Amino acid sequence: MTEQTPTIETGILPGTPTTSGEQQAVEEQLIRNVLHSFDNCQDPRLKQIMQSLTRHIHSFIRDVRLTEAEWNAAIEFLTAVGHITDDKRQEFILLSDVFGASMQTIAVNNEKIADATEATVFGPFFVEDAPLIENGGDIAGAAPGQPCWVEGSVKDMNGNPLPGARIEVWEADEDGFYDVQYTDQRVSGRAHLFADAEGNYRFWGLTPTPYPIPHDGPVGQMLEAVGRSPMRASHLHFMVSAPHMRTLVTHIFVRGDELLKYDTVFGVKESLVKDFEQQPTGTPTPDGRDLGGRTWARTRFDIVLAPATT
Questions:
Q1: 159-216: per-residue pLDDT in tens?
Q2: How far apart are CA 127 and CA 36, in angstroms?
Q3: What pTM does this model have?
Q4: Which of 151, 147, 152 is nearest to 290 (CA)?
Q5: Residue 18: which of 57, 70, 62, 58 has the closest Cα?
Q6: pLDDT above 50 for 1
Q7: In degrees to the nearest 10, what's the CA dihedral of 298, 194, 120, 118?
Q8: Please, what is the end-to-end C-alpha distance for the chain in angstroms?
Q9: Which residues are bridge partners to 239 per DSSP?
Q10: In the prediction, which pLDDT does 3 show?
Q11: What dihedral do alpha carbons 113, 116, 121, 126 form, nearest 10°?
Q12: What is the 3-class SS of 212-242, one letter each residue?
């Protein structure tokens, strides 16, 4: 098979080598017509996006020689994704996540800068207005799981502390569910707090455990059809913001988790893998908290924010 090059006018690959020249001409004329339909768009960026999207969609259809039945199945799939989406479940985010589109968008928009903490996927379970806790408070609420002490600092890239930085944290319980996945309106496993005068923070949460993304809908059916697991590596979500700094959306992951290489949304970055040190029963806690004879874990996550772009 000879290598194909995009046509100058359409910028996409011609049809397969087995497609006749006459058929290729018909297909490429259609692409030209669609591209020219955006000529009167007054927004240059919107025009660029729509024309590029057109090229890629048509290139995909021609590359795989998509059948009408397959196209109809795709429409039915996307319709099902829309139907299951509501104010607590965003199936389109799941779809974006499992294709790596979320992580690629994050990579494009959060260029790695020196030692700034790396970003990763937002996920579908962030909720506005999480409760405020003081430094050293507990985000877990009544959620089941092993207590975990989390501490760290928030600094800029010059090592200066960022007092008052806002830190949003949220996580699943040991059963693999976020509070919004329950029907009793509970609020647990999430909170926000502020870095202290030295830029430090600390709180009690739960030791992260692996869990599956919601897979009882169309995205889960797709993963099953292609032989992919819905499992996510153990993680704890952070969103950190401060004046004049780029807002960071990230997680930390548990070193030693077997799913680090197989995270279904491709969210793991080596710099975000942390040691969660297990503490035996009876080990004194940093704040003197009585854990009633339970084991606990501790970890440290020092955060470096990049400057905001102008």
A1: 999 999 999 999 999 999 999 889 898 999 999 999 999 999 999 999 999 999 989 9
A2: 42
A3: 0.86
A4: 147
A5: 62
A6: no
A7: -80
A8: 48
A9: 168, 249
A10: 46
A11: -140
A12: ECCCCCHHHHHHHHCCCCCEECCEEEEEEEC
